[in-house]
Amino acid sequence: MRRSLSLWVVLLLQPVWLRAAPALDAEFPWIETARVFLIDGYEPPFTPKLEFNARELADTMAAMHANTLRITTMGKYALIQGVRFTPDPQLGERDILAEAIAECKRRGIRVVPYVSTGHKLAWSMVTRYHPEYAQHTKPGGSPARSHMFVGEDQGTVCWNTPYRQAYLDMVRHIVRDYDIDGIYFDTWRTGYFWPGHAVCYCDGCRKGFRKATGLELPWHERDAEYTPEDLRVIDRYHAWQHENLVDLVHEVRKLVKSYKNIPLIYNINNPLKITQEDPRIYQSMDAFLYERGSSMLERVEGVSLAKAEGMGIWPYVGEYNNWPRVINNALDYQQQIFATAMFGGGTILAQPWGYVHHAENGKRVEYPCRILQRDAADLAGFHSNA
After folding, report:
1. Above 60 in pLDDT, residue 360?
2. What is the mean pLDDT of the chain?
């Protein structure tokens, strides 16, 4: 099977690797040959129990020929020091990003921190410790509450609250004070996880929207009570929110580049959304990733479209839908890794923490990563002409 798979790779590689990649991503060529471990803060090894060990992780990555770590700085809680977000109850004096950098750098592994961007936060954070960050789902109301994997429930946040400045301060702290090689943001979306009509009734939204438009945000208990005029006002609110978000993206890019010339990477979420994205957002980024794909064809199309835009791309390797991402699909992992590489994308392995204590399960991933490491010099700087 290994011989036939290698032959399949060789046959497909020959017609598609034809010419140099576009100039826009030439500044950070390592993106397209990255073999990334993704360690999120929404599940083990951070919740429900903090059992993260940076040395074990870095050793596992080196053994599996991974060369880049995307490590969380905040999931349900903050996992680094010196930020205005509630720390993980088990964190103490630890700093997860600093620990990861110390162990990875000595093994030649790049580190790209994940910055929770408009994402839900621990319910206790947005209701008890920092209620000023919360989205209000109705006038005088609370944020939207939901459960995500394991551990504490989470609640929604709003950019038009002090959350925005706390977020910017966190980005500044990470870029200025840590030896990082890139920075990854979540989806740039104004109402991330907001339910219903995706409206926030915090003071920042109500007063800001009124000042910008002279209009009041409508709210009704039942959907049937919203008039066509109400819905038009909500559409204007969404447009106003989006313009604020674009301003924030530009501010974040300027902030990052003022300290380090590193790539900004963000989550497009789904390859189908690439053509729907506001160009002002993706042109402010240097690369993006997507989580989902419904087929191998959609994978290579999504990678090719990103490369045509001159941007780096990291599609998740694993399940084609969203959850769970770690499944026993054997050689399909290898096909996804090789196909991604052939069309100019880097590989990002979702939820690889299981390999740390179960090395035998990583064999299907170790093999293609070893081949790509061996041939990295030949693959760098090329993209599909198909």
Report:
1. yes
2. 88
380 CB contacts (<8 Å, ≥6 apart)?
A: 29, 30, 32, 33
Task: Provide the whole-model pTM.
Answer: 0.90
Confidence bin at 270 (pLDDT 50/70/90): confident
Residue range 258-274: average pLDDT?
91
User: Using N-to-C axis directions, what is the helix angle for 2-16 and 331-342, rounded to 10°?
Assistant: 20
How do beta strands 287-290 and 35-39 pair?
A: unpaired
Res. 64: pLDDT tops 90: yes
For residue 141, give the amino acid letter. Answer: G
